[in-house]
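Design request, tokens follow.
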């Protein structure tokens, strides 16, 4: 089956129409799978999402396309957000399939996690008809699990609560990388620096699920989508999860050296392989004529199986393209999703106490609020204050007689971002001042005296309100100012 010098190239033997179905590229390490996939991507008349799990090979060969997951263009996902036209219950079911496949949950674990997710949606106001409703995050699910885990077996803390809590920051946030950029453009998802493997696997499942929902909600669009997995042993669970994907024009290219598990295959590109598992799998697919010959193929030579026909071809070196083949999204859409700035939110809450002047920039405030690692309950509470200011140009909590309410909001806010303060009744005021100041500055990254003092005042006031034994501490602190 070795190709001779006059053999045709891959593009000349592949029926492009069959690339609308799943594609399997199989071969040993170094046989040319990555090069073959790059050629196939050029043949696919659709956006492609390429999961980069190797040493930057796709980033180098396909550098003309958008690369997401780097320090320049970070990847941000909210798994709990779904597009218009997708039912919440349907999305939750699909989301649970992801967790079950990635985490191997048993029936009890699935039941508890599903209940926590529904509680998180309820707290976020989803499905309630509220105009200010938001989408939950892992922060909300973690809080819901925290309320439930004590009721169940303690092992749930490790299998669920600890796992979910670990996902409450970083890639999984309330604000997402632009959907059109990710799902309607050829994009490389750089996963090389994502650890552990379980996290990488979860990200691939989440992105594939969200790709399906994006195209389900855009039924009027005719563009198909191809997702590429290279050397992913978890590809079988991805395929199980997305059996419905082809109904919406999605297909997969999967490269493998060991396990081969793919349904609805339209094309198989076979390179050199000595793996008996691969040969047995191909034999079951009726590619009997070539499966025993794979070990004899030379590098750069492939056998293509499509629609019952078998052809040999060359896999020529891949030359970088200079033009992005799908222009669905301008590069201006590539926006860095920054962390939120606590100063913007604190300026709003402490406006009077900081003696600020001028109108509050509500657009900037709302945008910043979405970037902060806050629970949906807190986001909804702040959104209510934003609406109050929009209607009245002031806030009731700014009045001196409502300082207790303001102190409660600011203290809860600081606790959520990791600045929960604990102190003893008889602690020296100077020591207390230094400890508070250090904790606040370290947590919110803000070292302006006016802001720190205002936040400290709120926390001290709230502690004295919650427990009268702290009143003397509060009094000593005020005397030390």
């Amino acid at each position: 089956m070795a190709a001779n010098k006059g053999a045709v190239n891959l593009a000349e033997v592949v029926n492009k129409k069959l690339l609308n179905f799943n594609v399997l590229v199989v071969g040993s390490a170094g046989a040319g799978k990555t090069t073959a996939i790059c050629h196939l991507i050029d043949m696919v008349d659709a956006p492609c999402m390429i999961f980069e799990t190797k040493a930057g090979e796709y980033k180098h060969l396909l550098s003309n396309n958008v690369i997401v997951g780097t320090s320049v263009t970070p990847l941000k996902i909210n798994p709990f957000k779904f597009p218009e036209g997708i039912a919440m219950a349907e999305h939750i079911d699909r989301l649970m399939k992801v967790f079950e496949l990635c985490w191997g949950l048993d029936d009890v674990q699935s039941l508890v996690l599903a209940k926590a997710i529904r509680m998180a949606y309820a707290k976020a106001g989803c499905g309630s008809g509220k105009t200010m409703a938001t989408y939950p995050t892992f922060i909300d699910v973690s809080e819901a699990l925290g309320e439930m885990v004590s009721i169940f077996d303690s092992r749930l803390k490790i299998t669920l609560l600890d796992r979910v809590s670990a996902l409450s920051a970083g890639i999984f946030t309330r604000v997402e990388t632009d959907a059109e950029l990710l799902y309607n453009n050829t994009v490389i998802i750089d996963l090389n620096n994502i650890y552990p493997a379980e996290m990488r696997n979860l990200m691939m499942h989440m992105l594939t699920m969200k790709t399906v929902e994006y195209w389900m909600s855009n039924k009027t669009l005719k563009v198909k989508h191809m997702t590429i997995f290279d050397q992913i042993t978890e590809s079988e669970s991805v395929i199980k999860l997305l059996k419905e994907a082809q109904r919406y024009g999605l297909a997969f290219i999967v490269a493998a050296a060991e396990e081969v598990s793919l349904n609805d295959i339209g094309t198989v590109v076979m390179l050199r392989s000595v793996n008996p598992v691969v040969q047995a799998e191909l034999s079951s697919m009726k590619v009997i004529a070539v499966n025993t010959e794979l070990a004899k193929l030379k590098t750069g030579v492939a056998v293509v199986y499509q629609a019952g026909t078998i052809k040999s071809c060359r896999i020529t070196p891949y030359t970088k393209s200079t033009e992005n083949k799908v222009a669905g999204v301008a590069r201006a859409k590539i926006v860095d999703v920054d962390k939120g700035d606590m100063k913007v939110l604190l300026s709003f809450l402490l406006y009077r106490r900081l003696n600020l002047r001028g109108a509050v920039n509500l657009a900037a405030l709302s945008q910043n609020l979405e970037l902060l690692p806050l629970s949906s309950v807190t986001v909804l509470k702040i959104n209510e204050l934003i609406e109050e200011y929009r209607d009245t140009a002031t806030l009731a909590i700014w009045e001196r007689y409502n300082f207790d309410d303001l102190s409660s909001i600011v203290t809860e806010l600081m606790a959520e971002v990791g600045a929960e303060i604990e102190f003893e009744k008889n602690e020296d005021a100077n020591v207390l001042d230094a400890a508070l100041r250090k904790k606040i500055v370290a947590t919110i990254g803000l070292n302006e005296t006016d802001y720190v003092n205002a936040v400290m005042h709120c926390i001290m006031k709230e502690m004295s309100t919650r427990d009268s034994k702290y009143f003397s501490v509060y009094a000593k602190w005020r005397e030390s100012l």
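Comment from the thread starter after seeing the answer: thanks! The beta strands are 22-26, 48-52, 66-68, 187-190, 225-230, 250-256, 265-270, 301-306, 309-314.
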